[in-house]
Predict the structure.
Amino acid sequence: MTIETQGEPRTEQAHKLVAASISQDLGFLLAKLHAAGSVLNNRALSEFDLKERSYSVLILANSGLEPTQREMADFLSLDPSQIVALVDELEKRGLVVRAAGKQDRRAKIVTATGKGSRVLAQAAEAAGRAETDVLDGLSGEEAAQLKALLRKALWGASGA
Amino acid sequence: MTIETQGEPRTEQAHKLVAASISQDLGFLLAKLHAAGSVLNNRALSEFDLKERSYSVLILANSGLEPTQREMADFLSLDPSQIVALVDELEKRGLVVRAAGKQDRRAKIVTATGKGSRVLAQAAEAAGRAETDVLDGLSGEEAAQLKALLRKALWGASGA
DNA sequence: TATGGATAGTTGAAAATGTCAACGATTTGT
DNA sequence: ACAAATCGTTGACATTTTCAACTATCCATA
């Protein structure tokens, strides 16, 4: 990020409106960096026919935490019906399987297949490179600090 | 934010899935904090019949920087046609006026009216309170640091 | 100074997303 | 055993995004 990443069509540039007070607004800063990052992320993931959403689901399915769809919905701040569609697609592609929960048979536990794990490993690399691009303007330490602060804001000092 | 803000229906809680590796992913962290913040922001702004979008436009219109609609679109990462709709509504409500650009008569400069300024002043207070809620888990210093890092990631060290 | 190509705003249509209410299957509390 | 709640799913509906035109205007250059 920061000023023109490459000779590309020009990603972002210092703008006269940066001086406006909205540049101090947290919601705006989050929205803008999120928007910029989404473009790069989705571009990087498109090679694997994934988007940010399906990528997230695949990560959770591969986490070993045996998440149910409901837990995924809560955690990803998505409507349960959206999880259905995402899991449907990943399952159709053989990257993920649904299994009835052991204690609660209403719930469906989503788990990554071997193929899902392998695709995820590659996708994660590409996503990592995209993240590096987004945080181009920050030092490694600053990048880590930014992520730590975001985690703390979300889950408090105890968060991962 | 952080664990349950109040006795409310429960806003957010430490989740078992926090342990998943996606909690280290910048895009996810931005999306999640942005989503959580949007809820609070829009709730706070609804008192003034504003949403995050129209609030942003109103701020820029009130900035004294005489932004054109195109500049707003670029800066807010929105399609120009969305700016049209937002300005239409604000103009209908008498909070903002359009004027032809002096050098370029194709461009429309959007400026806040007196009424717009007054509404904005109050809305900004409410939005500020919402932001405080979102950053509940951070100290004042940490909150400032977070915002500084976001700005730096977007515009480099020179940014506002 | 005329002419071609770009750009600002606007409109409207199409596609993608978000929201929400209902339903069957299952669990939980009493 | 029964009532109330919950999980996944479906489908309807609303909102948002994306994109291709179109007019008016600007700019470059012959």
Notes: Strands of chain A lie at 96-100, 108-112. The domain at 48-125 of chain A is CATH 1.10.10.10 (Arc Repressor Mutant, subunit A). The two ends of chain A are 26 Å apart (CA to CA). Chain A touches chain B through 66 residues (CB under 8 Å).
